[in-house]
Give the backbone structure.
Amino acid sequence: MPSPKTTKNAYPQPQRLQFPDAEAEHEWLGYAFDAYYQADVGVAESIKVEEDKGRKLACAKGCSSCCKSHTTIPIFPLELLGLYWYVTEIMASDVRSKVKLQLTDHTSGDPCPFLLDGACSVHPMRPLACRHFNVFGRVCKEGEDAFYSRREDVLTPIKSHQDAAYEAMLPFHGFTTPEQKQQAMKSSYVQKQARVLQEIDWAHLAARINT
Ligand code: SF4
Ligand code: SF4
């Protein structure tokens, strides 16, 4: 999925999202920011390893065929809430109007409704799955899902960072003590909450978005 990449080998240093006022108001937002930061750091590290071997990241801004060809993108409850927050509170109103239309028209199985004019309209809050999906070598063809067509070119996320991202989400689900978290991680609690982005009833969400 398109991410803050350059076409040269200078993947930007990940930054934790900064919306201090919103985070003070919504504690759960900090959990999402922590999770995304962990994921982004892991992705940056993996990319660096590959680039050091001479591989070149194909993903770049404006490249988005993966957002259309992928039909079963997992999304977690905290991420859904984060997207709703981003669309209603942060997104520019002209963009929000367009996204609202796409959400309203979305039916199960359609491509991701947040893809707008060839770019991700929720880029800072895009789900973990989108953050993790990166391809080396050449840009995907229209309709190609590189995970199946050339798995060797798809970045493998670092498990410890992936786990750290899931762990960061646990307080949202009420797991706060080290023991509770350990237990929840052992049972893959967060992963079991995954839904499919394309199958969400986005029209329901759209109805609650003021433009
Ligand atoms: S190269 Fe493939 S995975 Fe990367 S942004 Fe383009 S279409 Fe998506
Ligand atoms: S949220 Fe949608 S538009 Fe954004 S990167 Fe993911 S699939 Fe693409």
